[in-house]
Amino acid sequence: MEEQVRKKIVNQNTLTNKKIRVSVKGEKDKGNLIIQHACPLKYIEFPGLEEELKKLFEESGYNVIPIPHNCCGGGVGHQLRTDISEMIAIKRMKEFKDNGDINSESGDTVSYITTYCPDAYWILKFFGKKQKSKHKLVDMCELLEE
């Protein structure tokens, strides 16, 4: 039984580690976008994911604004130490405000923030309201659907 479970896990990992390339041609100038990446996927599971998503959104008509990646305060941290998680979330929202309302590097106004991480989505939604962020948080699939 244990061997069957182990094989199933290996097969599942083999499936999830394959790259799936989606080509989307959209209208140009859909707006500026910041992507909050899921920390475990970005750093452990799928190196290169950031660049793949950037290409996908640019092909779809968005201008992806680069800002340094930092933890949003979600994930396990929010379950274990809400006090620290909230400090991190507030700091991240300030980074979005400072770099996003008008991006200091490019001078562009940011229209959207998106993420594919459910914890990050919840944190950004909750603390975005709390911090009075001007960004529109939109699910990644909704942006690609337009």
How do the SSEs run, as a string of H and E?
HEHHEHHEHEH
Low-confidence stretches: 5-23
Distance between the termini: 46 Å
Helix content: 40-55%
What portion of the residues fall into strands of 2 or more residues? 5-15%
Question: What's the pLDDT, averaged over the residues?
Answer: 73
Largest sheet: 4 strands, parallel
Write the layout of secondary structure elements.
Blueprint lengths: L1 H15 L14 E6 L2 H7 L3 H11 L2 E3 L11 H5 L1 H19 L11 E4 L2 H13 L5 E2 L2 H6 L1
Parallel strand pairs: 1-2, 1-3, 3-4
Short description:
This protein is α/β, with parallel strands linked by helices. The protein has a single domain, classed as Rossmann fold (3-Layer(aba) Sandwich), CATH 3.40.50. It contains seven helices and four strands.
Molecular structure report:
It is globular, with a radius of gyration of 17 Å. The longest helix has 19 residues, at 82-100. It has a single domain, classed as Rossmann fold (3-Layer(aba) Sandwich). The N and C termini lie far apart (46 Å). It has a four-stranded parallel sheet with strand order 2-1-3-4. It is an alpha/beta fold and 146 residues long. It is 52% helix and 10% strand. Helix 5 (82-100) packs across helix 6. It has seven helices and four strands; from the N terminus they run αβααβααβαβα.
